[in-house]
Amino acid sequence: MKNQKTSAYIKFLSISSSIIAIYIVTQLFTFSTEPSISANETPTFKNSYSIFSLKIPEGINFAGEKIPFEKHWVKESLDRELLVNTYWQSQTVLFIKRCNRYFPIIEPILKEHNIPDDFKYLAVIESGLMPRAISPAGAAGIWQFMRSTASEYGLEVNSEVDERYHLEKATVAACKYFKKSYASYQNWSLVAASYNAGKTGINRQLNLQKANNYYDLLLGEETGRYVYRIIALKEILSHPNRYGFYVDEEDLYPNLKTTKIVVDSTINNIADFAKSNGISYKEFKDLNPWLRKNKLSNSRKTKYEIDLPVQIATQQKIEPNIVPAETFVPNKISGNNIPLKTSGLQVQ
């Protein structure tokens, strides 16, 4: 009788264990399947986080030029960059937010100089669209110019003024580089690669490897991934929802509304100047990161455009373009600095 009870108990435990095992396995498969979300429902982290391989989109190109996906290494190289930038989520979300602020400044300059719009993504991979970015090698600004290259393409670089940090002027300088490079290569992917490795370096590899395009070159890690990363970010930032990125409009970094004023004389103390115009030193430097010190000597009386918040001009009742530039003669700015509303500054 005792043995029968023991046998029945063992059978009960066996059946219970089997049921529990089946339940656990079922749950594993349940939580590994693709989440079900209705068409009108916005995905959230809790109900939709999953890891997927990615499909290479059909028809993707760089600057209007065909990408040779029939070559397996080209497809695999782009696949790598799509995966890295899709699943480095925090960085890519920041890119999406910053693009809203800086692309409206970059895009019209590229268009004016007949440079393909895709080159705005080059700025993203160069600096992450961080205005004060500086590399270990000394490249600076959103376009990451080295000092010598910046001077070659018309940017002023000294201890007080460093126009590598001036987004508009640095974008114009980058356009000059792209144009000059395209005149040599007649190919935009090589233009982009040369921005990273230099034209001398790219020319050396083209000659050494008897190649005539970027995709057939065996290059070092950085330049070898460079154009693919631009293409990947173009795809992700152009179609963020397709890659799982949902950033509400109110979370995008706003384009800062500013008024440009012209100064052709000395500012002895920028902190005083900022304060006299109703903003902090930090806000002033954020709007004008190309001014590197707490003063602007300007012994040559160069005309510099300085950005101030639009509301400052509004509060002080200054309206842009009232005074024609050709007839306006700015006064000196004293050591204590004069407010924006005085005639020492010219609004444009």
From TrEMBL:
Molecular function as annotated in GO: peptidoglycan lytic transglycosylase activity
GO cellular component, one term: membrane
Keywords: Membrane, Transmembrane, Transmembrane helix
Transmembrane segments: 12-31
Keyword Membrane: yes
Family, similarity comment: Belongs to the transglycosylase Slt family.
Name assigned to this protein: Transglycosylase SLT domain-containing protein
